[in-house]
Amino acid sequence: MKYLRLLPIILPLAACSSNPNQQMRDLAAAITPYKIDVRQGNYITQDMVAQLKQGMTRDQVRFVLGTPLVTDIFHADRWDYVYRFKPGRGEVQQRRLSVFFEGNTLVRVAGDVVESGPAQEQADAEAAARSRSRVIEIAPVESKKKAEEPAAEEAKKADAAASEADKK
Fold first, then answer.
1. Are residues 50 and 114 in the same domain?
2. Residue from 136, 116, 118 nearest 127 by CA
3. Is the predicted pLDDT of residue 85 greater than 80, yes or no?
4. Inside any domain, residue 11
5. Judging by beta carbons within 10 Å of its beta carbon (0-12, 13-18, 19+), is residue 110 exposed, middle or buried?
């Protein structure tokens, strides 16, 4: 409504320009209504998925990821987390993450969640376009501890060697 008052001022300026058609298109784009960004579902980051461990209970998974968007009575051992972002202007982005249980324990996770951040919005869109789904491997708690022990011992040996070299 307030743009209509400016119309008598803008039209003569548009007529005087070298490309009046372009000016009119720019004017029409400027007075289109504002469209809000619509976010729906569970926003899941790669950091949240990294906290998942095989053997976690349903309550622990719910604590890390939040309440799932979809729980199906026909697939009681599967939770689906869906996130949809529709910007006011631009393409719709959608992400999915499925969590699978056997009984009350976590077995595997599958989906297309990618790491997010303010600088990676473009990378998110490209990664989602390239691969719509990927399997995310989660290690059992025991095997992860065993894998960390040799690395810690090697780091101690390297520190000891470096301190001996500094003494000489």
1. yes
2. 116
3. yes
4. yes
5. middle
So what's the pLDDT on residue 115?
Answer: 41
**Phi/psi at 28 (nearest 5 deg)?**
-65, -35
- Residues 28 and 107 both lie in one domain: no
Note whether 83 and 70 are within 8 A (CB).
no
Range of the domain at 7: 1-32
What pLDDT is attached to residue 111? 86
Query: How many structural domains is the chain composed of?
Result: 2
Q: Token pair of 75, please?
A: 């697939």
Is residue 83 within 8 A of residue 42, CB to CB? The reply is yes
Query: Are 112 and 131 spatial neighbours (Cβ–Cβ below 8 Å)?
Result: yes
Query: What does DSSP assign to residue 89?
Result: S
Q: Are 11 and 46 part of one and the same domain?
A: no
| CA–CA separation, 82 and 67 (whole Å) | 11
